[in-house]
Each structure stands twice: as C-alpha cells, then as structure tokens.
Amino acid sequence: MAATEKPPVFVIGPTTRCGTSLLQRLLNSTGRIVVYGENFALLQTFPDIIRNYQREADAKRKVIAMARDLLVEKREDFEASSLFPDFDSYLRALIGSFRLLLRSYRDDAAALGFERWGIKHQIRSQTSFAILPRLLPDARYVMIYRDLLPVARSAKARWPGDFRGPQDWRRFARNWADNIRTMQRLSGDAFLLLKYENFTADPEPHLQRLERFVEIDGIDRAVMTRRINDQPRFAPDGSAVTDYRPPQPLSDEETDLMMSECAAFYRELGYGAAG
After folding, report:
1. Whole-angstrom Cα distance, residue 139 to residue 214?
2. How far from 75 is each of 65, 67, 68, 70, CA to CA, in Å?
3. Tens digit of pLDDT for each residue in 123-134?
4. 186-233: per-residue pLDDT in tens?
5. Looking at the predicted structure, is the pLDDT value of residue 236 above 90?
C-alpha cells in the first residue's frame, strides 16, 4: 500500500513522561514509518473547535436558518449575532480543514520516502481526545501508560512550575487516572494499550505486537538499550544544549495528595502501595 493510502498511527500517553517518546523512537527506527512530535493545536484545539460547534446542533441549525431567512427573504432590520454561514456547510469545512492539515503530514512523510506516518500526543483534554476516533476511524492508536509516581517525579523535575500547591498534585493524579480510564474504554482493532512496566521488563513480545499492529516490521531492538534523554541537542545557533533534569523525589505530602485522588485505581492497575 502506498504511503498516501495508509492511515496514521497516533502514539498516545495519559500524561507526559509515560513512554510515548520511546515508542516514537522505536517506530522511527524501522525507516518505514515516521512519527512526528506533538502538535496540540492540531490534535487538541482543532477537535475541540469541531466538538464545540457540533454541540446542540439542531438548535444551532434552526437559529442560523432563521437569521438567514430574516436577512434574505424578509429583509428585516434585526440584531444579527446569530447570523452565520449555513451550519452544515461550515461543519463540513471545519472537518475538511482538519483533514487537510493531516494530509500535509501524509504528504510530507511520502516526500521523505516513508510508507506510513503518525504523531505523538499526550492527552490534555479527554473531550478532544474522545472525538479523534470519530473524526479518524481508520487511524491506529498506540496507547501507553506508566506508574504515577515515577511519572510525577520526572514531571516535577522537568516542569516545577506546574506544582505550586496541593491542588496541582491532586489535579495531576486525577488527570493521570481519568485519562487512563479513557484509554481503557477504547477497544477494537484500532487500539493497542500497553503498560510501560510490562513493555520494558520483557520487550520482545510487546515489540512483536507493536509491529503487527502498525503492519510494519524492522524495529531496532537496540533502541531499548539506549538512553538519549540526557544527550545534548543543538540550538539554532549550533551550540549544544542539554535540558535533562533527573527525576526529583516526592515528599510524603505530595504522594499522599496524589493518592487521595486515585489510590484504588492505582492498585487496580497493579501498582504497589505508595511510598
């Protein structure tokens, strides 16, 4: 199948630091698929715009039609805040614009010689993520989650400004749990759900599943043994920069705040007692 015909593969995590970068590297190592970096405007904001426009569709359709009738048929002087393009034509344009942006990825991947393409993404909004399979039913979704505590340690080190008070720790844990539940509810041939700890403890069977799922083999197993997050990257001026920050320990209070939101679910996923 030509590159222009294969549906995309989305690599999804419930939060940051859950293993999506590892999956991206593994798939890119085949030389046959390119998984691009995060684009929250495309995979979060745009679906939200479409979803919000579709809300109360019948009522909006009726109000817009009435306003257009007042303008064109009755030629009345009226307050025209509800005057809008035809509801269904505009909705088709919104969805068409979304798909046009996705086609730019497809075309770029084909120009680079890849037979398949994808995007890495972390769920920030359950509602925008939930609409993706409806907008793109032919796409494949590789989803991976990880123990909350190492995820939080890493996030604390990388983005300390996100944790300014108790409410931030509760929010982080709540999002982690809710987003994993959202992932668990998705089932069928289009979805593959992986647990990071199982994946890294015994990679081979999971790598074989991944290859079958995306219908591309040749993953370089050596990627699993290489660490690159502490390697320097190059700034636009050519200088080498490293932004790696080792995970930071969690205080008992921080751990307790998170567990107050999701302790039962944490254990349900097979993770041990907090500590």
Report:
1. 10
2. 14, 10, 9, 6
3. 998 888 999 999
4. 989 999 999 999 999 999 999 999 999 999 999 999 999 988 765 555
5. no
What separation, in Å, do the N-terminal and C-terminal C-alpha atoms of the chain show?
50
Indicate the SS3 state at residue 158: helix
In angstroms, the CA 149 to CA 244 distance is: 19
Amino acid at residue number 274:
A
Return all residues near 122 (Cβ < 8 A) that are at least 6 apart.
12, 13, 14, 15, 16, 18, 20, 38
DSSP state of 137: T
195 within 8 A of 167, measured Cβ to Cβ: no
Pairing of strands 233-234, 240-241: antiparallel
Residue count of the chain, please give it. Answer: 275
- Residue 145 makes CB contacts below 8 A (sequence gap 6+) with 13, 14, 18, 19, 176, 180, 183, 193, 194, 195, 196, 269
